Each structure stands twice: as structure tokens, then as C-alpha cells.
Amino acid sequence: MIEFGLLLVVVLALYLMECAVWIPAGSLAFLLCSPLDHSLKLIVRPRPIERPSLAFSNPFVPWRAIMVCNPPRIWCSGDGIVSGCADFEQPSTKNGGNVIGNFVPFEEIRRLESEGKNLYVNGAKFASLGSEAEATFLAKWLQGLKSRAKQERAAEIYKEIKRKLAPERAAQVLSYSAQKIYSLGLDCLILTVATFLAMPFVVWRWGLSLTWPFLISFMIFNVGLIGWEFHSGQHDLYPQAKEARWMSMAMILLSPPAAMRATRYLAKDIAWDFHPLAMAAAAGSKGDFELLASWFLRDLTFSAELPVGGNLRAIESATWCRERFRLAVIDLVRKRGLDETALISPRIRESGLVQSYCPRCLCQYTVISGVCEDCGGISLLPHPMKNRGLANC
After folding, report:
1. How far apart (Å, rounded) are the C-alpha atoms in residues 334 and 321?
2. Within a 10 A sphere around the Cβ of 267, how many other Cβ atoms?
3. N or C: which end of the chain has fewer CB within 10 A?
């Protein structure tokens, strides 16, 4: 009985670890609060300095899963593509927190392919993306974009930007995904209750020597059922993610604690084909939408001065694509009845010493002029409210 108790403690510790989700630097995370109304809550917010973090879901409700959302990591124009990631294999320069040095013209692209989460151009790693499904899609989409005339690429790029920012499409995908997660979550809950409540009672009442064959048989059957349902749901939601599917399947079938939180593996990449703002507009609160809209508008509007000696075509392509994203975000914001100017306005002064602020992160400074180092050297602006009241403390 003591050995069984120790085993149960180990399983509980592993189960609690499965409730944590790693959020890569630059990514955001939503919590699926209820699969019935598909409501979302923003739990990992954007930061001026990108860094990874951990998000935790409720261990007692397996269908309250965490979704990871990734802002654009690749910028496109009619001339070529620019990596928005900091981990490619060539030197780069940074501009307001966005890498703008790894540029490949369309005329020089001979081969586009994906492997896992990575996108390869001409055999060299170009960018690391949020999921295998995203990398597979981008490789195919960029290949199609390359085959078009330069004049046609601009319209196709803007069409894709609008598609990723469409809240109606996001709501449809979220509704279908939530049904899959809820169904899988019920099986996960049965396994969790049986492991931590029913099995200890059975062992205490009849002893481990008499009951272990039945307990093992139940565990194998239930884990197998969860594995089959996960495979079916994952195939429906992410048909492109073959490698990730089998890796997750192996984890679920070989680890009962992972099987108890199989919804974690199914929900994580739901938003791979959407901008975070589209998910917030589809099922998030008004406050979360305004927070994200404010951040992305500021991030797309303001950037550091162009680096001396930088790749001019890379800078032009990234700037062009960022401006198209900004226009699409403004269009979505206006449809929600909000004023984009008010969203990027500075906060009320925190003290009477404040003279300037960073237009990207809204940090306030007591100097009249300077740059914000956290945002890559963005020039500070005079605070327009210097003669008005202070923020309430």
C-alpha cells in the first residue's frame, strides 16, 4: 500500500506538470473558459521585451485548455519575404523589436519546404514558426505567391492578412474546436477521477494484489480511448501536422498523466491560422480586444529609426507589409466601434516629473528627449498631457 501511495504521488506531480503550457517568446495565450459559449480570456499579454513564460490551466477542469497565438513572424511584399524571427541562420539587424535583415527576393527562391515548425528557403532555415501546421501552410502559400506576377502579389498578400484577421472565421473554427475539446475532456476527466479517487479506494478496500489486473486493464483501455479520440480530433483540426500528431500520440499513450491532459495537446495550436486580434474579437472580452488592438496598432505604427547599412529591400518589404497589417487592424477596430487614435494615445501622467513617453510601450520618462531602449531605440515623444491632471494613485 505504501508503494502504491508513492506511485500515486509521482503521478499527481506529473499531472500537475502537464497543466503547465510553455509560451514561446513573442507569443500570446488565451484560456478557453467554456466550451459551451467558446469564451476566451487573455492570460499571456504582449510585452515590449519578448520573453518566454509559463501558463497554467485549471487541473480540475480538463476542457479549460490553453491556446497559443503567434503574431506574424514573416513579412511579405511583392519583392520578397523577410523573416520576423530572431533565430535564422544569417546575420540580421533589428528594427523596433522586429528582425528585418533576413530577406530573400522571390526571384532567388528556388525551393520552399517545411520540416516540423521550421520553414526552409533554398535548403537553409529561414524561420521557426509557431506550429507544424503553420510552417506547412506557409511553404505552400509562398510557393503559390512566387508563381504570381509581382503586381498580383500585393493584392494576394493583403487578402491573406484580412483572412487572418477575420473574426467570423475565427468564431467558426473556435466553435468546432471547442466541441472536440469538450468531448475529449470528458474522457480525460473520467481517467483523472478514476486514478486519484476510485483506484485508491479500490486498493484500500480489496488490496493491490487482488485488484491490480483490473486497474491496469482499465487504465490501458481508457488511455487507448483517449489516444484514439485525440488522433481523430487532431487530424480534423490540423491535417497538415503529421509529425506533431504522432509525437503527441506517443506522449499520451506512454504517459497516463499526459493522457489526463490530452486537451492540452489538442487545444494549443487552434489559433495557428489566425492573428491574436481575430481570436479576441471572436470570443474575447471587450477589455482584452482593446488591449490587444492598442498594442498591435502601436507596434505597427511606431518603429525605431532605420539601421545604417541595413538591407534596404528588407526594410522596404517589412515596412510595406507592416503598413498593410496596420490598415487591416484599423479596419477591424473601426468595425468594433472603436477609435484607433484613442487606442494609441498615451496614459495620463504618472507624476508631475513626466516629460515624454515611448509611443510603442507607453512607458513614461522624466527626460525631454531620448530613446526607449526596451523598444529598440524608438524616439520618445513629448507627453501631450503635461499640463493636465495626474493619474490616480
Report:
1. 20
2. 30
3. C
